[in-house]
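Morning run. Coffee first, then this:
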Amino acid sequence: KMAAGEAAGRYRSTMSKSKDPSGLLISVIRTLSTSDDVEDRETEKGRLEEAYEKCDRDLDELIVQHYTELTTAIRTYQSITERITNSRNKIKQVKENLLSCKMLLHCKRDELRKLWIEGIEHKHVLNLLDEIENIKQVPQKLEQCMASKHYLNATDMLVSAVDSLEGPLLQVEGLSDLRLELHSKKMNMHLVLIDELHRHLYIKSTNRVGQRNKEKGRISSLVKDASPVPLMDVTNLSTPRKFLETSQFSTPGSSSMRETSLLEIKEDMELDPEENSTVFMGILIKGLAKLKKIPETVKAIQDRLEQELKQIVKRSTTQVADNGYQRGENLSQENQPR
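And here it is:
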């Protein structure tokens, strides 16, 4: 009995000192294990039951006193629990949607890449079609340029068209006839340019001298000047040699020299291409360079040099004889046998 009393005292002291339910439970277990008497155990059991009943009564009283607050707390807790549950479900759904979007974006990325590549291909095809359409008009434009003697523009057009037909458009079977036609024209284009170059080099220049001498003779006959007129005044004549020298040895401060540089020569489609013979010969040389026919041009000039010089002498002799005869006729008509 003394042991049971001591255990009960320890139990009460434990209840009064500690509010931890685990400590209370350990104390009760220790008390029941140390007591050997059944009566003490029953007493301890009764004391526990009494304590539980008291707790229930106190809890009921507290519930009655704080019913409104408890109800509000329970409802608030239920609402919070529902919100947390809904949020978890929504987050789960969002994760699933994100995974689905990720898969769809991968698919869309492949589709967009495919469409981008198709767009590039279509753009390339459209550029080729535009180029084919422009090349089909080359023969007609080339004929017009050749007729108006705009040879540099014609050469650029022809070289560009042949490069396209033998390059990017080589596999287009429908352009085979046009390819052969333009290639043939390109092979023979330099012959036309060389003929024009010789015409200006030997014939047009000497014609200007003869025309100038005729004008001087006409003026001298009007003023009845008996002094002889120089037949070949070529000091101010612009020749290809002078053109070459000015283009090579021009100084940076000389604007007139720079304007005659072969590299800066451009063809004006609105003006007569033969108005300035020097510029026209520069255009012809530039066209021959684009055709890569400069060696053939030099060879042709060397081969025809003697023949052309003989023709110049022959034409000059004829002009001098004609001028002298006309001069004698005029003097005889004026009764001046001298």
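The chain has eleven helices and no strands. Good start to the day.
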